[in-house]
Amino acid sequence: MKAGSWATRVRQLAAGGKLGRARWAAAGAEQLLNEQASSGQISRQAESLKGWLQGISRMDMTWVTDRIAVGGGIWRAENMATVARAGVTHIIDMQIEFDDTALAEPHEIEVLWNPIDDDFQPKPPAILQRGVDFATEALDQDGTRVFIHCAAGVHRAPMMTLAVLCSMGWAQEAAQELIMKRRPVVDFADVYVRSVERFLDQQVRAGK
Question: What is the pTM of this model?
């Protein structure tokens, strides 16, 4: 895809509020621009778009507690470096679009790639259990911080964060209020809240 086509796609997605997908497209466009620049073939149009594309790809991370953050996709090495500088030691990556593992390795950040689609369908308790187990093990260690993210930090990551907080002893309503207060862009879709409730019910039945 040409740089101009990439940029058009980014603008369309951003205008439609699909910021996670827009950031993914921006990352692809920027990679193409960098390849053109290194070969000396970058066009004037592509060069003029580069700053705009970099702007949409900035790191988006909100701390809901002093050790748990929620946010959007990382996508790029520069953003992973920002995450590392924030003291993050563990990442729960809920996005099906991108696996952070390779970006995290240079920083010795542990990644759980726990991908689900943002399709407004019920999510199985096993997915939430994986994330809770990973977060619990991480937070049991001194000096650790966990970043839970999806593509935009609006649906999937807040759902996982809610499951983690409730498993730590937070009341569900209080946990939701905390997450939304710290990160107002969060949208707790009913189907995702019910998925967390089913997961918590399963924990109670299992005596956890």
Answer: 0.76
Residues 3-34: b if buried by 16+ CB within 10 A, e if exposed: beebbebbbebbeeebbbbbbbbbbbbbebbe
Q: Phi, psi (5° rounding) for residue 87?
A: 90, 10
Q: Are 169 and 200 in contact (CB under 8 A)?
A: no
Sheet holding 61-63, edge to edge: 61-63, 68-71, 146-149, 90-95, 110-116
Q: Are residues 72 and 148 in the same domain?
A: yes
Q: Tell me, yes or no, whether 81 and 184 share the same domain.
A: yes
> Rounded to 5 degrees, what are φ and ψ at 32?
-65, -45
Q: Is the pLDDT of residue 38 over 70?
A: no
Q: How many CB atoms lie within 10 A of CB 109?
A: 19
What is the tens place of the pLDDT at every residue in 160-203?
999 999 999 999 999 999 999 999 999 999 999 999 999 999 88
Same-domain check for residues 110 and 196: yes
- β pairing state of 68-71 and 61-63: antiparallel
DSSP string, 80-95: HHHHHHTT--EEEEEE
Host domain of residue 176: 61-205
Tokens coding 105:
């390795």
Give the CATH number of the domain where residue 113 resides.
3.90.190.10
148: tokens are 């839970």
| Helix 125-139 with 190-205: angle, nearest 10 deg | 70
* Token reading at 68: 């748990």
